[in-house]
Structure prediction request, 212 residues.
Amino acid sequence: MRGNLIGRLLCTGVVVFAVHQASAANLLQNSGFETGNLSSWTVSGSGFGVGATVITPNNGPSAAGTHSAFLSNLVMSTTLGLQQTTPLGSVHAGPVNFSFDLQNILSANGGAILIDVWDMNSAGGIIDQGVGLPLTAPVDSTWHTYSGSYTAPAGTDHLKVELDATFVEILSVDNVSLSQIPEPTTAALVTLGLIGGFVGQRKRRFETKTHR
Prediction:
């Protein structure tokens, strides 16, 4: 009977742990632009000859859909940025995964694509730049998927992602993702604690019987 109970608790612990590990959901809203607009995103640097919108049908390969964000910057002295901040308390210290689909349509006169992910504290201050790099993307009007990871430092509370089109650059972006395995939940910790308690109790009883 006790063996069966421990077995059930162990199975429960494995299931809770597996669900926990699989729950690394995308922290960004409207990440595939399927709302048909740029809701949840902020555009910076827009003006005459510079702007961002959502177009269809044109979709990146990472997820089903029909929409993508279209960034067009035809002014050399301007940086066009597409930004979003994750909710407060959405991130903790540890590995962060990022990925996005990108279609580079035109790059001229030193045009470049930059990707930035900022580690933010609970007050909205920048701790550091988790990812900050120019992106070398072939100018072939073909969708390519880019992904990577880095480790968020202690004190990280949420993230800010920004994709920039600098100088003369035209591109589409889609399926932008920031994700992180959440910290152990109370349920997972309680389950593991119960398993440890029962195993320890059985071990003590076995040792007591052995020494009689």
About this structure: Residues 23-204 form a domain with the Jelly Rolls fold (CATH 2.60.120.260). The two ends are 23 Å apart (CA to CA). The first helix runs from residue 2 to 21.
